[in-house]
Amino acid sequence: MRVIQFVVFFSIVFTVYGLVNAYIFSRGLRTFEQGTAMRTWYIIGFWSLASTFFLGRILEKVYLSHLSDLFTWIGSFWLAAMLYLFITVLIVDILRLANHFFPFFHLFSESFLLRNPQWMTIIAAVVVFFTVLAGHINALNPRIHELSIETETESKDRKELRIVMASDIHLGTIISTKRLNKIVEKINGLKPELVLFAGDIVDEDLQPVIRQNLGSLLSQIKAPLGVFGSTGNHEYIGGADPAVEYLSRHGISMLRDTMVEVVDNLYIAGRDDIEGNRFGGKIRKSLKEISDNRKANSFMIVLDHQPRAYPEAINNKAGLVLSGHTHHGQLWPLNYITQAIFPVSWGYRQFEKTHVYVSSGLGSWGPPVRIGNRPEIVVITLKFKS
Q: Which pTM was predicted?
């Protein structure tokens, strides 16, 4: 059943990817005259770039090497470029359609671009290139987002607690040694007492993580009360059990439908990803089952990768729910889609007495590019009742 689901899922992805590229390609091809060298280079260059993402993913499975890394990097940038080329071509086609009903192109008939349409394609490609480059620079520079939450819970151990939270690092070929080293340094520089990771710590494939020994960097994170994590959908896509075992060996206590008390009257509950059944054949426990043994009037932080199960969290009196998954769209204008799908796409909300924070994520999936949002590390000061 799981194999069938993967086949269906990737068949849909491959079909959509192919159709979008074919659409962009056909519109660009029209601007180059037949028999010219520029047309030939356009054909070769376009399909070489368009094929790199899938070539890199396939090579990672059969021959993990610097060559597979190269294809994956180029293909990942192409995903971002493809989105903005698609939007550009779509806008041009909408203008062409409008011109069909309300002719206005003749007003610009003497313009350089209309007389030399190949330059329109070249300029569009250059603008998209610099847009993606700016988005890459943005993705490399996470911001620190600070949040203070006052609780109605008393704790014998302390008056307040400093927590660092992050989600969606997506460790692998793209987010590797250099990026992770900076992330660990930044987290340690914030001097957390407790570190929480809300899923998608690793990307689909664990082999690039093992090859680069990224676990040794994760184990350098310092937090007196521990480092805890929950699974996300990407751990499940690549195989949750090996990923959890690897992360556990390198200093991250993975909470899979379990709960621990870290200080007096403060519990951390980690939920398995809601899509565990789809990708791993595992139905997760209810939050009531997980938290049945907590003390009365205690405060419970829930790590739940996808920001969906808020009614369940409210009913079980969760104090704080920490999620990720959305990346807040990662690439504008996809944030409008995540805002339509999820109750919270990014940021802080309060539902009754349950506080909610959805992180935009620290890493990226696919393109190492962020446009319209920032990667972030969240610093939470939890204040107990005196």
A: 0.91
Q: Tell me how far apart the alpha carbons of residues 212 and 214 are, in angstroms, rounded to a whole number.
A: 5
Residue 364's nearest CA partner among 72, 164, 110 is 72
Q: Are 127 and 359 in contact (CB under 8 A)?
A: no
Single-letter code of the amino acid located at 130? F
Q: Quick one: 44 exposed, middle or buried, by C-beta within 10 A (0-12, 13-18, 19+)?
A: exposed
**Cβ within 8 Å of residue 43, ≥6 positions away:** 29
- Domains of the chain with bracketed CATH: 2-137 (no CATH), 143-383 (3.60.21.10)
What whole-number distance in Å separates Cα of residue 166 and Cα of residue 232?
12
E strand or H helix that includes residue 163 = strand 160-166
Structure tokens at 384: 């107990």
The string of pLDDT tens digits covering residues 94-150 is: 998 998 898 887 777 777 766 778 888 899 999 999 999 999 999 999 999 999 999
DSSP string covering 254-268: E-SSEEEEEETTEEE
Q: What is the DSSP string of 294-360?
A: PPTT-EEEEE-SSTT-HHHHHHTT-SEEEE--SGGGSBTTTHHHHHHHSS-SSEEEEETTEEEEE--
* Phi, psi of 67, rounded to the nearest 5 degrees: -65, -45
Instruction: Please give the single-letter amino acid code of residue 22.
Output: A
The Cα 344–Cα 359 span in angstroms is 10
DSSP string, 53-71: HHHHHHHHHH--SHHHHHH
Which residues contact residue 2 at a Cβ distance below 8 angstroms, ignoring those fewer than 6 apart? 279, 280, 281
For 333, the token pair is 């204008």
